[in-house]
Each structure stands twice: as C-alpha cells, then as structure tokens.
Amino acid sequence: MLTPAPSGPLWSGPGFGEFVGIIALMMAVTAMSIDNLLPAFPAMQAHFGVTDPNRLQLLVYIYMIGFGVAQIGYGPLSDTYGRRPVLIASLAIYTAGCGLAMIAPSFEWLLAARVVQGIGAAGGRVLSTAIVRDRFAGREMASVMSLIMMVFLIVPMIAPAIGGFMLLLGSWHYVFVSMLALAGILVIWFSWRMPETLHPQYRRPFSLKAVAQAVRITLNTRVAVGYATALGLLTGCIMGYVGSAQQVFDTGLYHLGALFPLAFGLVAGAMGAATLINSRIVRRLGMRTLSHAGLSLFVLVGLAQVVLGLAYQGKPPLALFLLALSCNQFLISFAMPNFNALALQPLGEIAGTASSFLGFYTTILGAFCGFLIGHAFDGSVLPIGIGYAGLGALALAVVAWTERGRLFRGGVAG
C-alpha cells in the first residue's frame, strides 16, 4: 500500500529545479569518486608498482564495499536525528578519506582510504533517496528520481576528463583534490539552502529494536525485496562495465589513450538521455510499464552483445561496440530509477531506514556481481556482454516473481 508524502508546513526550501540540483549533487559525489579516478589507473600502477592491471579495479570495488556497508547506519540515524546533521557528518568522513588517499605511501593504504571515502559517500546515497521520499510519492517520486539521475549521469560524462585534466597538473594526487572541491560545494549549498525534510511524525527513536523492526517490515514487503534485488543485479552490470572500462577503452583493448574520456562520456550520455525521457513519460505510462519494457529489451541487446563479441573474436569494431553498449545503457536507465522508486513506494513511514537497508543490499550485490564481470576481463568485450545478458535475464526473472508473473501491469501509483 502506498504511503503518501506527509502533509505539514508549507515548503520553505529551494524551488523544484534547485532541489533536484542539490540532490543530484549528493549522488554525484559517488560517481565522481569512481569515474574521476579511472584515467589515473596507469599512473597509480606505475607509482605503486602494481603488476596485475586487474588489481587496480579493487580501487572501485573496495570503495563500493565501504559505500554499501555504511548505508546500514545512515538511514536509522537520519530517522532519529534528521537528514541534515547526518549528511554533514558523512561528508566530513568523506573528506578525511580524500586526505588519507592523497598521502598514501602504499597501494594498501590507498585501498584503506578508498574504504573511508566509500563510508562517507554512503550518506549522500541514502539521504538523497530519503529526502526525495520525504517530499514525493508514487509516479511523482519516480519522475523526480529520473531528473536527479539525469543530472547525476552528467558526472560520468565529464569525470574522466576532469581526472585527466588533474593529471596534467602533475600527479594522480590532484584527482582527489577535485573530489574535495565537489564535497566542499555540496556542504555549502546543502547547509545554506536545504531545510530539514524529516516530518516530525516519522521521527523514530534510535534503537536496535526499532531498526530491526524496520528491516523486518522491509524484508516482508515483496515489492521492496524484489525490485531491490533486480536493481542490485543491474547495478552489477554498471559496476562491471565501470571497473573494466579503462582497460577496455584504453590500456587493454582499443588503446584510445586521451580519447578514453570521450568514449566513456558517450556511453554515459545515452543513460542521461534515457533518464530525461523517463522523467517526461513515467507519469503517463507508469513505472512498471517503462521499467519492464526497458529491462526486457536490455536482455535482448545483452544477448546481441555476446553474439557481436563472438563474431569478432572478442574485439568488434569500436563503433559497433559503442553502439551496442550505449543502447544497453539507454535501456537500463528506464529500469533502475523506477525500480528504486517501486522498492521504496510502500515504505514511506520508514523511508530512511528502508533506503539505508535497501541501499546496502543493492550496493553489495552490485559490487559483488560487478567484481565478477570486471575481474573476468581477458582482453575481450565478452565478459561485459555475458554479464549484461546473464544478470539482465536474472533480474527479469526476479521482477516476474515480484509481480507474480504479471509484467507490464500498471496501477494507480505504478
């Protein structure tokens, strides 16, 4: 059953466009912390003497582990103390992680710093979703989330270029300076313009019993568990691609060099276009219709990627590979924001804790699946294609289970 956004005092915060911008920046910190680092992999490999290039992918996946595990705490804390103080505390942790990375004397130290970064960045992921759920519900929430995702996805288009530019300043250490700058902008903007959004009637005492009760409600909600699982599997596709993108486009396969950020940005641009379209039509067509259609087509294009890889012995022409990959990133963007909204839709009264727990679950599942895809990189595009087709098909099966076999079924709110 849908829990509507609670009624309360007239909204005194930023207008709609600025609200979307602030929330998108909260999520963008996560993307910046991943994609900004990719061009620096060769420099880090040389600096730390890493012999296996695949080991550099740990800088992505270890970050995601810290990011995923920490989400368990932010939701319950924000349900007790409010969204504002918890976000600011999380950004302080993130800043500390950036500082530790900049002085890392060894690769192991750098990995530990990335865990701290992930722990800090998790606050933005949890609280962005909770704040949106505080204010919106149903298809309106899905539309807002799509707009936020569109702005958020602009970051991967430019983050590798920013990382490459920072490298030109002299060292991979400067990449972390750009991360610090983004976090600083967010702290100032959020503190100045965003009021507390947690409604007083939804404020919950912090206790293990209360958290356990909220988690139990979440786990007993079939829609929440099903769509979160499907979202985690699709996140695995994205993480597998991101983790191996530098090797695919730059050092291991296509050798694009300075053009790597351009190729990466083109693929991210397809996701941004899809999220904009989704935000425009989701209120009319519904979340289920759009997400189920997007996922079904995603699986078909994933199978086409496998066929394409086999036909060209693992190295299809760059233009064909980019076209297939962009098509799949376009289609996945009709599923992921809607799955996120569908999972949280019946959990408005425990939005913070539910967002926290589901974020932990989807991130850890996505990081694990992404690691399997990325670590399987063998100098060909086949691991990405097989991962997309396999995880996409599994996600479709989970959605079918969630909806008891009735796909493309809309409703008043979905």
- How many alpha or pi helices? 15
Q: How can the largest sheet be summarized?
A: none
Strand content: under 5%
Query: How many strand elements?
Result: 0
Helices and strands, in N-to-C order?
Answer: HHHHHHHHHHHHHHH
**In terms of structural class, how would the helical and strand content be classed?**
mainly alpha
Task: Domain count, please report it.
Answer: 1
What's the alpha carbon Rg, rounded to whole Å? 20 Å
- The CATH superfamily is MFS general substrate transporter like domains
Shape: globular
Instruction: Write down the CATH class.
Output: Mainly Alpha
Termini separation:
11 Å
Q: Which CATH architecture is right?
A: Up-down Bundle
Low confidence ranges: 1-8
Notes on the structure:
The chain is mainly alpha-helical. It has one domain (16-402): Growth Hormone, Chain: A, CATH 1.20.1250.20. The chain is 76% helix and 0% strand. The chain has 15 helices and no strands. The chain has helices at 16-35, 41-48, 58-81, 83-102, 107-135, 138-168, 173-193, 208-219, 222-251, 260-285, 287-311, 318-332, 336-344, 351-375, 382-402.
